[in-house]
Amino acid sequence: MTRRGDEVLELAKKLIEFNTSNPPGNEGALAAFVCRFMENLGLQVSTYEVSDGRPVVVGVLRGGREGTIVFNGHSDVVPAGAGWTTPPFEPIVREGHLHGRGSADMKGGLAAMLVAVAELTQVPSGERPTVQLHVCPDEEDTGSGAIYLVERGLVKAAAAVFGEPTNLQVQIAHKGAVWMKAEFRGKSAHASVPNQGVNAVYKATSAIHRLLTQLQPRLDTRTHKLLGGPSFNVGLIQGGTRVNTVPDRCEFAIDRRVLPGEDIAGCVEEMRSILGADSLRVEHVEEPMEIAETEEIVAVARGCVREITGHDRGIAGFPASTDARFYVNQAQVPSIILGPGSISTAHAADERVSVTELEQAVDIYFGIARGFQRRS
Which of 217, 250, 303, 360 places its Cα 20 to 30 Å from the Cα of 281? Predict the structure, then answer.
């Protein structure tokens, strides 16, 4: 490996060793480490306490070119869960991959951004724009770190790069999500005389059948060139109290994935009309995100990926949601998703990232910062 490759690998290992599982988060110690790292590089560093022990860290490297580019990484990870063949917070390199919780999602990407910024400090300021590095907590839950920055007007940039795992492919869109709970009410009775009651479980299962036979055909007619079609999933169902009692209540939870251009309120009303539930509650909303292929950051990033990897990997859409939605939709900052690792190993046991991709990500982020110039 090159010296740069050794640096990013060792830094990624250190970041993985911080157990920042969300919930509860506990990102404070990692944030303090990142803060010291950036201060030692001479960056202007600010921290903002989103909630107790959960700070956002913002590092600024001033440049001489017009405009500012942001590199964004999140400091939290999902809980390790079961099924690991190695301890999840004791990183190890095996068969060319760094294993550990957060290696792909996204402490590998964060490490690559930090090393790229370290390299940028050696570049004359006139040969780079101002570069900011945002390290946010709570991406895996509500996105409170990114929301904090956006709501306080602290996200002002010409472009942003989010280091989520894309196998180093530039991605310019992602789906949104609406989580809903549908409740069905019936009338309890003894199971020996079910005709004297109203079975709420039957009402709920009939509604699920309507989703499959009425909603799914509608969704099949809608598509996005980068993301495919919208979808729904019934992930939880609860009803009844005893096997010998007609259940008087049943509830199930629905995850509806929303395409850019779909109206979220319209999606909820469509669901409501098909379900016929006694109540339908929206529990959580994540907006979709999309930027134009013609944005300067897209062209610059694609060129860097092609130069470093030797392949034009084109553009795509990210299958999951990210903090980029806040920067694009609320702060109006054109943002791409681009990082080492695969989404297929994120949140899974034995999460891993290619060591080669880690090193290439440093070069790509470095090249993006060197090559980006805001259009007049």
Answer: 217
CB within 8 Å of 304: residues ≥ 6 apart: 363, 364, 367, 368, 371
Residue ranges of alpha helices (H) inside 188-263 are 200-210, 216-220
d(CA 318, CA 343): 9
Q: Do residues 84 and 199 both lie within one domain?
A: no
> Is 204 among the domain residues?
yes
Residue type, 309: T
d(CA 353, CA 98): 5
- 153 and 230 share one domain: no
Provide the residue range defining the domain that includes 282.
176-286
Select from 367, 360, 371, 368 the least CA-distant residue to 109: 360
CA distance 163 to 170: 10
The SS3 assignment for 243 reads coil
pLDDT at residue 1, as a whole number: 57
151 alpha-carbon distance from chain centroid? 19
Number of independent structural domains in the chain: 2
Count the neighbouring beta carbons within 10 Å of the beta carbon of residue 147: 16
The CATH number of the domain holding residue 272 is: 3.30.70.360
Asked if 254 and 182 sit in the same domain, the reply is yes
* pLDDT one-digit tens code per residue, 149-187: 999 999 999 999 999 999 999 999 999 999 999 999 999
Please tell me what DSSP assigns to residue 280. E
- The string of pLDDT tens digits covering residues 279-311 is 999 999 999 999 999 999 999 999 999 999 999
Which of residues 239, 262, 286 is at a domain's end?
Answer: 286
Residue with structure tokens 């109206």? Answer: 263
Stretches where the chain sits below pLDDT 50 are 376
| Same domain for 182 and 193 | yes
End-to-end CA gap in the chain: 40
Regarding whether 259 and 155 lie in a shared domain, the answer is no
3-state secondary structure of 304: helix
